[in-house]
Structures are given as structure tokens and as C-alpha cells.
Amino acid sequence: MSDVLDDEAIEAGLPDGWTRDGDEIARTFEFDSYLEGVGFASGAAGIAEEAFHHPEMTIGWREVEVRLTTHDAGGITGKDLDLAARFDELAG
Ligand SMILES: C[C@H](O)[C@H](O)[C@H]1CNC2=NC(N)=NC(=O)C2=N1
Q: Which of 6, 7, 24, 89 could connect to 69 by a Cys-Cys bridge, CB 3.0–4.6 Å?
């Protein structure tokens, strides 16, 4: 099981554009259209399923909010940071 990271490790590992919110990290991705956001969410879901580590995603008007935490560990772990970086790559 992944170990929960301390504050220093989270700050050091948090990819640009992401913020820490308690036991979660979050980023809102912005898109030129609603359907582009839906496409991103679908791609992110595939990455999540492959990693078997799942975000909460809220699809809005030309934006998708992504929130990550490791439920099994009760906090933020390297899995969350790794998935955040992969979602950033997906968004381009
Ligand atoms: C049994 C447990 O739900 C699974 O190991 C996976 C599924 N997806 C998951 N996703 C997230 N974000 N955290 C988890 O701890 C987690 N656990």
C-alpha cells in the first residue's frame, strides 16, 4: 500500500497548476468546448482504470475539475501525484 506523503513531499511533488486541498489535490482543466472536456474526462478515466487509481471528476461548461486522493491510505500519496502528471500530459 502507498504511504501518505508529508506536507514537504506533497509541495515538492505537486505538478504546476495543481493545488492541495486537505487530503486531496485538485486542478480544473479548461477547454474550448464542452465536448472537448468530455473527451478529456473519458481519456482520463481510461488512464485511471489502467492505473486502478481513480479521480473524482466534475464535468462543467468547458472545464473539468479533477480531484485526487488515495482512499486506501487516507491521504495524498505518490499515486495521486503520478496520475496528476499523466492527466497534465493528456491535456497537453
Ligand atoms: C479496493 C480499492 O478500492 C482499490 O484498490 C482502488 C480503486 N481505486 C482507487 N482510487 C483512489 N483514488 N484511491 C484508492 O485508494 C483506490 N483504490
A: 24
CATH number of 7-91: 3.30.1360.20
Pocket test for ligand 1, best of 53, 68, 81, 82 (most atoms within 8 A of CB): 53
Report whether 47 contacts 23 (CB < 8 A): no
Q: Say if ligand 1 is within 6 A of residue 71 CB.
A: yes
Residues 6, 89: Cα–Cα separation, whole Å = 25
> Predicted ipTM?
0.93
5-60 tens-digit pLDDT: 999 999 999 999 999 999 999 999 999 999 999 999 999 999 999 999 999 999 99
Q: Whose CA is nearest to atom 9 of ligand 1?
A: 53
| Extents of the domains making up the chain | 7-91
